[in-house]
Amino acid sequence: MFSLDQLSAFVAVAEELHFGRAAERLNMTQPPLSRQVQKLERAVGARLLERDNRKVELTEAGQAFLTEARRLLALVETAGDLARRVDQGAAGTLRLGFTATSAIRTLGPLLRRLSEELPDVDVILHERVTPGQIDGLLRGELDLGLGRPPFDSDVLDSRIVSREPLCAVVPGNHRLAALGRPLTSADFSGEQVISYSPTQARYFHELTVRFLAESHPRIEQRVQQILTVILLVAAGRGVALVPASARHLGVEGVTYCDLAGPGQAVELHAIWRRDATSPVLQRVLTMLPEHH
Amino acid sequence: MFSLDQLSAFVAVAEELHFGRAAERLNMTQPPLSRQVQKLERAVGARLLERDNRKVELTEAGQAFLTEARRLLALVETAGDLARRVDQGAAGTLRLGFTATSAIRTLGPLLRRLSEELPDVDVILHERVTPGQIDGLLRGELDLGLGRPPFDSDVLDSRIVSREPLCAVVPGNHRLAALGRPLTSADFSGEQVISYSPTQARYFHELTVRFLAESHPRIEQRVQQILTVILLVAAGRGVALVPASARHLGVEGVTYCDLAGPGQAVELHAIWRRDATSPVLQRVLTMLPEHH
DNA sequence: CGTCATTACGGAATGCGTAATGATA
DNA sequence: TATCATTACGCATTCCGTAATGACG
After folding, report:
1. Residues of chain B neighbouring A47 (CB-CB closer than 8 A)
2. Per DSSP, what are the bridge partners of residue B271?
3. Where does the pLDDT of residue A264 fall: very low under 50, low under 70, confident under 90, or very high at 90 and above?
4. Which homologous superfamily is A91-161+267-285 in?
């Protein structure tokens, strides 16, 4: 088999049609150049250059081989590029899980930034509830998730990417809509409250239960999706607690009310495996907004 | 820059995911294999294999590079093939000159054999009178010609590829058509004879003049092409001498008559430059029929 | 303690450069 | 005689294989 040096030698001679000039171009002397070309000819099994002491010219076989040699060397030049880009996280694939809610305010800007700063990264989106994302992360089906606590922080690392207040959503003609002040837990006394699945939307379920712990509302529904909750509210089935960004969903016939008291923060976490090695992931993490 | 050996080493390890087995496959021991892979990684500028003492696996960069490496090695495998085929004359281009007459019986079979035995040879056809072919050969526009003497045998080599008798062509109702015996020179006495251009169809011109030297026919036309001659005969403008294969042109209204006496042979020569180096030409020459 | 990748070291092979050769105009 | 590719030869580098080291289960 021939070597890449031999290819370079041949191409140089073929282009210069002169061993001396070709050797100069390759920063070497003629004799080794001669030998390299001879070796290449032996390896290929065909005479590539017709040469005597007066002229050098390509044979037809040499003409044909020159094309291949150039193609090969060009490929050598660029072969490492992709690998380097992948290594630096500038190319590759990111399998990103997200909850329907996170898509409202967080996912869009993130995707926009990704496509601007890492245009060679393909993002494959998977809409899943948080437990589904955690499952996917652990199985290696996802590289990064956008979800809510809780999760096993031994194997999963995370970072808060957004924090927003919780608010109430009530039918437009509801008495709570007319109060014109932040609602307290007590305001919900006796209200029909729509809440979340304790397993599939545990985070919102617990936020709701915690906020309303002192009053004793009737909790009937066990819904997974924020949007479903709001649609049920619009249908007059009750009131609910949702993250403030839900206001932007544009559902008609409902009113959003602030809640009284501090600390009703809804956190969205970026979650990934601690042992993840994906360069794309590492790179994406460096550009994630961090909220403390 | 990396070497092809390094690529092979990397591909072997990437496929075996085990340095020991990969080394065995490459007929070498582990240590140099390790070093080759390390060198490759340094040359590429990215870690390609994630390895500790228990497992070996591809990084994402390595995954990307593996594709390139395979493509490159495949190209290396096949790079020499075309050159070898060209060298052996089994691929390439043959620029072939021919006279209209040679096409009748010789060109077709030749082209058929070429496409069967050398399917990767492209034949580019140039219909030219013999002087035009010789010009083309000398200028390097043609590789091989099918023409008639004379030509300069110092620079051009040749071989007779067919020999056929000369015959007379006369109008169907002509008195010579009714004789029913081979015609002699004397039979043409007083006939209107159509002959050939002394420069552009010198060979047939001289054949005609030589045969008819003793009689004294009236020679009026100066035609280049055999077909034109026959059409003129059909039109009643005279009689003419043509190669026997002209019978197969299928012109109506004419009769072909044998000529008396021996040696009225029409030779067709394959002609090429003595200094021609084209492997295709060499290969084609070996399969040309040779008539002595 | 066994497995497996890596580092250490000695010897062989490859490759370059200088010098000599040969062939051509 | 001048040019230019090739062969001859000495030296440096590269690369392999054996042996030793190190890390991990």
Report:
1. 87
2. B145, B158
3. low
4. Periplasmic binding protein-like II (3.40.190.10)
